[in-house]
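# nightly structure sweep
# worker-07 picked up a monomer target from the shared queue
# config: single-sequence mode, recycle default, output format = structure tokens
# input follows
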Amino acid sequence: LGWIKKQQEKFATQPRQAEREYVSGETLYVFGQQYFLRVEYSYKWNSLVLKGREAILTVRKESTAKQREAFINEWYRSKLKEKIEIYLPKWESITGLHCNSWQTKYMTTRWGTCNVNTRKIWLNLQLAKKPIEHLEYVILHELAHLKVRNHGKDFVAILDQYMPYWRETKKQLNEHILDHI
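# output follows
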């Protein structure tokens, strides 16, 4: 009971992130790199371009924060898919473990999931904000579930074999709440 009360207090005193407005001056993270958002307006199309330390978001002036967020999430999805198409085959080749399919999905409580029956892997869209080594860790983690369903010693042995530094990577990945950056 004491532990539960302590965790509740810790949660209650955690700083809360203000709602994002997707306006100039806010920050975006792309594979661990921080970019400062610069919003420009156009009536033709939406775009997001990284230039130097800036993320230049071009949208309709009348666009809402929700519309801007939806556009940016789809942009993140395309960037994440590009990286998954590189790193999933890399880790499948290294481990000899192969999934049948994969998809991205916005998740708030986990970085990835694996359906061992269908051999399908889901990867959190928010991994596009994190450094590439975090994506690689989650890919390896989910592939390992194709061999070992639980997180027991056999599962840990797979992670240790292929990524000896996985514990530090996992710690860094989980330092912030999922939607923090």
